[in-house]
């Protein structure tokens, strides 16, 4: 198993930045593709970004492309999400997740999840 713990959420004004972290423990972090998802109240879980096990490939949801950057440090067992130019529409609980194969966009394919961290963007 992989245990995932997110941190770095908070309240920020529109146009501001935040960096989320996801610390992994348990089985070898570098074996897993990783993803970030978010869920706002009353909405379905939305794909934000994903990254391959090596970090060589990254994918983004259309709503965050050009503003968010996913990265990972396998030596530190940590996944990151740098969020710039934040908008009120980015307000949600953000989750990191691990998958055995690939870096898919569908949350159904992920095997392990963190507990989430709240991001609130004020206008």
Written description of the protein model:
The protein has 123 residues and is an all-beta fold. It contains no helices and eleven strands. The protein has strands spanning 2-7, 10-13, 18-26, 33-39, 46-51, 58-60, 68-73, 78-83, 92-99, 112-113, 117-122. Strands 2, 4, 5, 6, 9, 10 and 11 form a seven-stranded mixed sheet that branches.
Low-confidence stretches: none
Tell me the structural class.
mainly beta
Q: Return the string of H and E elements.
A: EEEEEEEEEEE
Helix content: under 10%
Shape: globular
Number of helices: 0
Mean pLDDT: 96
Largest sheet: 7 strands, mixed
Task: Note the beta-strand portion.
Answer: over 45%
Number of strands: 11
Radius of gyration: 13 Å
Please outline the helices and strands.
Layout (H helix, E strand, L loop, with lengths): L1 E6 L2 E4 L4 E9 L6 E7 L6 E6 L6 E3 L7 E6 L4 E6 L8 E8 L12 E2 L3 E6 L1
Parallel strand pairs: 2-11
Antiparallel strand pairs: 1-3, 3-8, 4-5, 4-9, 5-6, 7-8, 9-10, 9-11
């Amino acid at each position: 198993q992989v245990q995932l713990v997110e941190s770095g959420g908070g309240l920020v004004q529109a146009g501001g930045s935040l960096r989320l972290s996801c610390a992994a423990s348990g089985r070898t972090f570098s074996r897993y593709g990783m993803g970030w998802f978010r869920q706002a109240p009353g909405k379905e879980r939305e794909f934000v970004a994903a990254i391959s096990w090596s970090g060589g490939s990254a994918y983004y949801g259309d709503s965050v492309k050009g503003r968010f950057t996913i990265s990972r440090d396998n030596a530190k067992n940590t996944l990151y999400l740098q969020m710039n130019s934040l908008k009120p529409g980015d307000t949600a609980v953000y989750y990191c997740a691990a998958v055995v194969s690939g870096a898919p966009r569908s949350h159904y394919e992920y095997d392990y999840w963190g507990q989430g961290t709240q991001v609130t963007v004020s206008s």
